[in-house]
Amino acid sequence: MEETKKKKCVVRFEPSGLKTEVPAGTVLLEAANKAGIYLSSICGGDGYCGKCKIVIDEGQFQSKPTALLTPNEVRENVVLACQTRVLSDMTVTVPKSHTLETSQILMDSDAHRFSELAGEVEAGVFKFDPLVQKLYLEMSPPSVQDHTADHERLYLAIRERIDAPVMQTGFRILQKLSSVLQSLGYKVTVTIGRRGETTEVIEVEAGNHSDRNFAVAVDIGTTTVVAHLVDLTKATTIDTEAMYNSQINFGEDYIRRIMYAEENNAFDQLQNRIVNDVNNLIVTLATRQKIDLQDITTVICAGNTAMVHFLLNLDATRIRREPYIASAGFIPPIRAAEAGIQINKRGLLYCLPSVAAYVGGDIVAGVLTTRIYTRGGISLFADIGTNGEVVLGNRDWLVCASSSAGPAFEGSGVKNGMRAGAGAIEKLSITGDGSIEFKTIGGSPPVGICGSGLLDTLAELFTSGIIDRTGRFKANGRPGLSEGEDGLHFQLVQSGGGHQEIVITQADINNLVRSKAGVFAAIRVLMESTQTKIKDLEAVYLAGGFGNFLNVRHAVTIGMLPDVPLEKIHFVGNTSIAGAKTVLLSRKALKAAEKIAQSMTYFDLMSHPKYMDEFIRANFLPHTDLSLFPSVKLAAEK
Amino acid sequence: MEETKKKKCVVRFEPSGLKTEVPAGTVLLEAANKAGIYLSSICGGDGYCGKCKIVIDEGQFQSKPTALLTPNEVRENVVLACQTRVLSDMTVTVPKSHTLETSQILMDSDAHRFSELAGEVEAGVFKFDPLVQKLYLEMSPPSVQDHTADHERLYLAIRERIDAPVMQTGFRILQKLSSVLQSLGYKVTVTIGRRGETTEVIEVEAGNHSDRNFAVAVDIGTTTVVAHLVDLTKATTIDTEAMYNSQINFGEDYIRRIMYAEENNAFDQLQNRIVNDVNNLIVTLATRQKIDLQDITTVICAGNTAMVHFLLNLDATRIRREPYIASAGFIPPIRAAEAGIQINKRGLLYCLPSVAAYVGGDIVAGVLTTRIYTRGGISLFADIGTNGEVVLGNRDWLVCASSSAGPAFEGSGVKNGMRAGAGAIEKLSITGDGSIEFKTIGGSPPVGICGSGLLDTLAELFTSGIIDRTGRFKANGRPGLSEGEDGLHFQLVQSGGGHQEIVITQADINNLVRSKAGVFAAIRVLMESTQTKIKDLEAVYLAGGFGNFLNVRHAVTIGMLPDVPLEKIHFVGNTSIAGAKTVLLSRKALKAAEKIAQSMTYFDLMSHPKYMDEFIRANFLPHTDLSLFPSVKLAAEK
Fold first, then answer.
1. Is pLDDT of B197 > 70?
2. How far apart are CA A245 and CA A102, in angstroms?
3. Distance between CA A356 and CA B292 in Å, rounded?
4. What is the 3-state secondary structure (H, E, C) of B214-271?
5. Which residues are CB-contacts of A447 (< 8 A; sequence separation ≥ 6)?
6. Among A272-276, A414-418, B268-272, B307-311, the least confident range
7. What is the rounded average pLDDT of the residues A285-299?
8. Residue A4, pLDDT score
């Protein structure tokens, strides 16, 4: 043992064929990271989520015993990568269902969804006035009659075009200014960025380049990162791209990632991961659209508070600890290069302001996009992602809260759950005769079930009477219901035709119910605290990374959203990126976002006396108190 | 020759003993530079000013023939350093009268003079509100009841203390903010700097360091650089220091330095020189006062436009060429470190704004200090240095011009001229019996004559009838008057008692007359253009590096200043540094300076049709038109 520990071992990962060399004794999960393979790991490598399963094809290894593997799996050399050490050269296979596909799978859903929502600016809700602009200026050169200095001449010309009472020029720009102005007879393109009330001259180039000004808006989710490439001259979205957040093998939720980083002094590593992801998305978009990275002058990010802290390497440790605070809610614009983001080297990085440690800029973007902060009537906004954030309010007041009920609707903690991607069941129904109909994203053979499919599944199992109000499977012997390795499960799709069997287990259902209960309890706390009745709700917005075919009625049926008339419920998709784009294109929208972040009142559910009661009451389908869900009661009676 | 060119030669400079090694063939002036010896060189090494004389004690050299050396000098191995090449190891002696003493000689005069003028702030003319402040903040730490993020908590605490509507925080500060706040229980010292309307958090430190906040105000003159160390917490000047501008061997005036830099691609070198000078002054002051450089948070510079361009390496080439413009008149505050200035690494560098290529921030400082921009009556301000700038105006209008009549009153172009320093004759009178009385700075044996002494000399020679109205020596044979190597000269001090003979030559007088004529012609153009009569002048301010005993009556007698009642004339010393300090201590003063710079109308004398006429008419003592100088006429008649 002592000797083998010192030797180097080559580990080859199939089916990708990626290889890496590590010292003997290295944990297999680390080796996978090193090879660039991101295995799902909810627990951050602690060995109890069972997500990082991998098959050893060849080679020596040492694994800790675990109850998370079935006898069959152990026979087939399946191990938990986080609990296994490499002892020799080896070949391993990463099961398809356990890898995170970093292809453009999400393009079909999250990334493209509701891109028209970014049309706030074209629609005239906000004035088109982007955070970074290029102006082509034709100045008259200085003469004996007009001896204005170059720097003041530039300011005068800029102020003829735009409102810029407070201006700044970087030293390097100032140093080169005169030679640039003179090179083409005082005809220059000036790039100006807004930093709060200050207008900064960030670049000066000879000649007219004002038609080449691009930005990337990024939604940094805990699980996925979505980027839109925007032409700032035309206020249009040119292209979109998405990938999994590659921090994912440090923990599936951000609390675990913070714990991992604290224990391993790995905040730099977390930052590197997310910065690399953002850079990868930018490079992919720029390459595909043949855009020079120097012409990308702006990056704007919306994300939860923890993600923004990771991105900028701000102190995130107290997000998970009392008093649960952020290092910064309002992030001043910085040079993107300072954070390692590779666009124009003087380009700016903006982050949407957050409200609290658990209510981030993504939620502020949601409020901005849905415009609930402008209406007289009360609206409800719920974003169901890795966490479930809820906002209630109108133009006079806004309250918000976050339920940490877990990312079940993102497919996590669900045996055949997956993100909305090719092969994901996004729509499912159980017909009167008990047969199951479904639709997959892209029409591909079914691989798993995404959020909207899980919502359908839970609602259909309930309305078909396969599960009861507590979420438990009713009587055995029902077709499709059987005892599997994970306890009772219900078969949704038979294996065959090149795909595996797809089931939903009792544990899956319990997770989904807990998740929806968390969201609904949060809604109840906010409504009770503000004495808002269900009838007062003028609109309910549901945001998140569900599939394309979200059945909003099902969100009421399972008791996730309050029982309002269906026409009041709107699925609004990825409002985080939509809001980021709106802000990108209008300074007024940024001001609105800042005002939203400042004025929203945050309710800390952990310390709220009523939350736990509400959570327990919501752990039924749809709720212990059926009077809260008259439409569901009525449907059940029919 | 070919062989010797390749070898290395050691050149030793006496009396300092400084040595340097250079390749054979190197020009001796360059070797002196390399050794850190700054020889005066008005012509920038072109061989026609004759200022860089040096004695070869030992070694081989090759000199170009020159008419600037007397036969005696040639016999004594005196050479022009700029016209001499080193051919072997050699020892040379730098004559005392030709070196620039970089000691604290100026401390006695320029640096200390009128330091009470910086008292504008204490006197309540401007509110005390320094450009960079340290605030000690005791914040309550976050709690479950108060989950405000650290960054916003800091902003709130700052805004409780000061007016700061627009704020910025640097990325590095943001990253360390939380750990600094937590290290001593949210008790921190925050350093805030003002950049226009923006307030920047430039440093955050745990604990109370608010009593250690220092700044250096610098007057960057073409010939001298003067620095005052200021305690920003008490608005007091702690110490002062001055030295020669070590760019001086690239040319005595800035036009020659620009030419030199263009020809030799040496703008970097010019920047290095002045940055080193400023750093030397800062280090000297900090060391003497036992102040940590990190506690110096601000540097503020006032200087002519060219000096500020050299300091920041901005494009200065068009200062000397049509259309005679600056690269920047208004210089945004930058980090001092960006310009190479060694104070706190996040400390700020401010430069007073200039009006035009030939009217710089030093003149704006003069207008600010004399407060002529606030008065109903018309005032005149003249700054006699290497150039002669003139401002006329009141609270409604300000006009200005620059005469490039040369730095004769700074001792340049005058055989025994020198800057105000130890041994300089600063006061001189010719009594009724023709005997000469004088006073030297520090009471030292006389070494030369400084500005106030030269003014006295010219006026006394004129009123005693030794020179006529054209400035020519009258009849030969008069005691003291004799033919020397430089033509006719008048002996002011006999040699003996350890000092040399001190004379004034016809050429010296011609230079002084031209210099005063330039200033007066500029005054006349401004007065004529604004239809200002002599009787309209409520006050006349004379600024510049004269000695302590300036006789303002003499400035009228020779026709440099208009003939107003003497009580209206005020010698105000170094208003450049006084103005810089006022701005340093009050944001209101900075705004006032910016308004002055923007509102002043610049007259370009080169292209002004009347300037040359006025200049020719002023080339008499006091003037061709005696009616302009009734008091002088009256005195002459008596």
1. yes
2. 9
3. 39
4. EEEEEEECCCEEEEEEEECCCCEEEEEEEEECHHHHHCCCHHHHHHHHHHHCCHHHHH
5. A96, A97, A418, A421, A422, A423, A424, A440, A499
6. A414-418
7. 96
8. 45
Mutate to test the interface with A, among B140, B143, B145, B152 (most CBs of A within 10 A): B152
As given in the structure block, the two tokens for residue B432 are 């009724």
**Chain A closest CA to B10's CA: distance in Å?**
38
Share above pLDDT 70 across residues of chain A, in percent, rounded to a whole number: 92
Does pLDDT of B102 surpass 50?
A: no
Q: Could you tell me how far CA A123 lies from the centroid of its own chain?
A: 26
Per DSSP, A446 falls in state: P
Rounded CA separation B392/A585 (Å)? 49
3 state SS of A92: strand
In sequence order, the 6+-apart residues with CB closer than 8 A to the CB of B80 are B47, B50, B52, B53, B54, B63, B64, B66, B68, B69
Question: Which tokens belong to A294?
Answer: 């120097």
- Residue-level pLDDT at A368: 95
Q: Do A150 and B330 touch (CB under 8 A)?
A: no
Q: Considering the entire predicted model, what is its pTM?
A: 0.81
Task: Supply the pLDDT for residue B173.
Answer: 95
What is the arithmetic mean of pLDDT over A242-258? 88
Which position has the token pair 């110096």? B296
Report which secondary-structure segment, H or E, holds B489. Answer: strand B487-493
pLDDT, position A592: 96
Which residues in chain B (318-357) have CB-CB distances under 8 A to chain A?
Answer: 318, 322-332, 334-335, 338-339, 354, 356-357
Mutate to test the interface with B, among A154, A156, A314 (most CBs of B within 10 A): A314
Q: Residue B473: which residues within 8 A CB-CB, separation 6 or more? A: B466, B467, B481, B488, B490, B506, B509
What would the two tokens of residue A565 be?
A: 């008339």
Signed CA dihedral, B411, B416, B422, B428: sign only? negative
**Residue A365 — pLDDT band, cuts 50, 70, 90?**
very high
Closest-CA distance, B238 to chain A, in angstroms, reads 30
Three-state DSSP class for residue B116: helix
Query: What DSSP string describes A499-561?
Result: B--EEEEHHHHHHHHHHHHHHHHHHHHHHHHTT--GGGEEEEEEEES--S---HHHHHHTTSS
Amino acid at residue number A46: D
In this structure, are residues B281 and B245 in contact, taking their beta carbons and an 8 Å threshold?
no
Q: What values do phi and psi take at A496, rounded to 5? A: 125, 160
Q: Do A175 and B314 touch (CB under 8 A)?
A: yes
Q: Do B149 and A327 touch (CB under 8 A)?
A: yes
Q: Nearest 10 degrees: CA dihedral of B606, B611, B613, B616?
A: -80
Phi, psi (deg, nearest 5) at residue B485: -65, -25
Q: What is the pLDDT of residue B410?
A: 80
Residue with tokens 């009841």: B145
* pLDDT at residue A111 tops 60: no
